Fold this protein.
Amino acid sequence: MNHFVEIRSLNLEPGRREEFHRLYIEEALPLLIRWNFDVVAYGPSLHAENSYFVIRRFDSLTRREQAEDAYYASDDWRQGPRERILGLIESYTDIVLELDEATVQGLRR
């Protein structure tokens, strides 16, 4: 069975990556888990001091869209870490790949 993997690359405000990482681990990640997101891996990117990545797995492209629409419209996100998280991000881009189970497991931390 193949999975759809979203790789989100974030460009953070200069000098704020440590703060973003702490906020992600303490607030955003627990919320994503509560909303049943499969967060495969996350952390500071090795190529630039203001970059960060998040990898999430979905069963289908439709499920990805539904899950993200519901999550980002939720009070949990909007009244939770949304403003603090977005305030640390300059820009981001998503890449979605279709990968087999072995490859997804290889990406897990």
